[in-house]
Amino acid sequence: MSPASKIMLMVNDIEPDLIRWRRDFHRHPELGFQEKRTASVVAATLEALGWQVRTGVGRTGVVAHKGQGQPCLALRADMDALPIRELNQSDYKSCQPGVMHACGHDAHTAMLLGVAKILATVEFTGSVRLLFQPSEEQDDDQGKSGAMRMIEDGAMDQVTAVAALHVSAEVPVGSIRLGEGNATAGSDTFRIRIRGKGGHAAYPHSLVNPIGITGHLIVACESTVSRCIHPDQPAVVNFGAIHGGEVDNVVPEEVTIIGTIRYRDKAVQKTIHAKLGQTMLLAKSLGGTAEINIQKGYPPTINDRGLTRLVREIGTDLLGPNACLPAKNNMGAEDFSYFADMAPGVMFWLGCQLEHDQRFGHNPYFDIDERCLKIGTALLAELALRYPLRDLSAP
User: CA 349 to CA 45: how far, in whole Å?
Assistant: First the structure.
């Protein structure tokens, strides 16, 4: 029996556990840095499997370790949910009002527990560290995400490589999508404060309406990419919130708008920051003022060449010669990038598409085809077994 066949048989045996774990986490979602129940279930399961377990890492994260010495491969799963009210009617629907696993982190956590169960029964070279991470979706009051907090608590100490997967409703079950280089985009947040002169809306000649200025600024800012960035460089400037005014006949003194910047190249990031700053002068020409504050967020995730090749090899062996799809320009951002800055890293996209219905992430109807659970578990477990046996520095 080939090693690939053996690992697939093992995951078939634990598939009921994978589904049970995933549905339990789905029923009981928890927001970032609040994953106390999830962490307790994870820690208890890992301890029962004989892993060395540390809790409270990065506030509510869990780290498990098995094996001795180097190399040390870390595998990461995020545990947090989103502030979304689930509209699905499944029997595992969220029981927490206004909170939902709408991005697949419940599946990620279940699959990494599956890896723990498999690796508890086999011998492997070196050591494996499992990172059950809190708060990928949001930062804390100091602007730090779960990955950053876990790194501060030593989660990546002595780690020589790190890997993660993310479910994708765009990819069919039985396939993965990956590529060398950029796996995710960088993400920054900006806030613009526009000031004018408020008063009665019936007398516009005596006012400076910041809402009107805001309209011009939104168009100008969103044009930054088309005017200033080379067409072959992916980039996004987009707005997600606007606040200003209360009633129809009162012009407010100020308006605040909030947006996101996405980029894959740091030179593009620098250009967008500079051009947005220059665009604020438009408000002055319209009689008001505008100030922009840009908060740098997650950097791009860069997939290591050798690790990417190894994942592609494993995907081909386990799933077939056509299972590994090429990477696409993905403008989503991930704080896995902080782990991949500490050691060579790889992130790939696991097909979870429902057969007759795509349910995309961050949506109240999001769901997955649970057949993906055993596939993701097998890929990560096989990566843990093969990684210490390969020289990934070869050209």
Answer: 26
Distance between CA atoms of residues 360 and 368, nearest Å:
9
| Domain 3-183+300-389 annotated CATH 1.10.260.40 | no
Q: What is the SS3 string spanning 242-290? A: EECCCCCCEECCEEEEEEEEEECCHHHHHHHHHHHHHHCHHHHHCCCEE
| Number of neighbouring beta carbons within 10 Å of residue 117 | 23
- Nearest residue to 78 via CA among 135, 123, 130, 120: 135
Q: Which of 60-69, 200-209, 234-243, 326-335 has the lowest mean pLDDT?
A: 326-335
Cα separations in angstroms, 20 against 29, 70, 137, 348: 14, 33, 24, 24
Which pLDDT score is estimated for 357?
Answer: 83
Strand order in the sheet with 235-243: 235-243, 254-263, 186-195, 289-295
Chain centroid, CA 105 distance in Å: 9
CA atoms within 13 A on the CB side of 306: 15
Whether 109 shows a pLDDT value over 70: the answer reads yes
According to DSSP, the β-strands at 127-133 and 72-78 are parallel
Identify which of 225, 207, 336, 236 has the alpha carbon closest to the alpha carbon of residue 275: 225
Q: pTM of the entire structure? A: 0.93
| CB neighbourhood size of 230 (10 A) | 10
Arch. (CATH architecture) of 186-295: 2-Layer Sandwich (3.30)
Phi-psi region of 287 (alpha: psi -120 to 50; beta: other; left: phi over 0): left
pLDDT at 1: 59
From the list 44, 12, 233, the residue with the least C-alpha distance to 132 is 44
Q: In whole angstroms, what is the distance from residue 25 CA to residue 326 CA? A: 31
Would you list the domain boundaries of the chain? 3-183+300-389, 186-295
Q: Cis peptide before 71, with omega less than 30 degrees from 0?
A: yes
- Asked if 199 contacts 251 with a C-beta cutoff of 8 angstroms, the reply is yes
Rounded CA gap, 386 and 395, in Å? 18
3-class state of residue 75 by DSSP: strand
